[in-house]
């Protein structure tokens, strides 16, 4: 899932906004989530050094807090490339 990192809370949780990219290349916030961080600090280091990230959780998120198992930083250039792909896909339809 693509997220915007808002705040790391108490060292063991993070507040994020789940994002989507529509067919016109607009970034749409879907919902606010508070997720648990794993015991090791690799995910914390990634999330504290980036504004956007692709994250993976241990299971589906249905309103309850879940633990992030993997996080990859997403740069603004990468985000803009995804937006361009969404627009190109719409234009091909």
Can you tell me about this structure?
The mean pLDDT is 89. The chain starts with a strand and ends with a helix. The chain contains two helices and five strands. The chain is elongated. It has one domain. The protein has a five-stranded antiparallel sheet with strand order 3-2-1-4-5. It has helices at residues 42-48, 76-92, and strands at residues 2-9, 13-21, 27-36, 52-57, 68-74. The protein is of the alpha+beta class and 93 residues long.
List the helices and strands and how they pair.
Elements: E1 2-9, E2 13-21, E3 27-36, H1 42-48, E4 52-57, E5 68-74, H2 76-92
Antiparallel strand pairs: 1-2, 1-4, 2-3, 4-5
How would you describe this structure in keywords?
93 residues, alpha+beta, 5-stranded antiparallel β-sheet, 26% helix, elongated
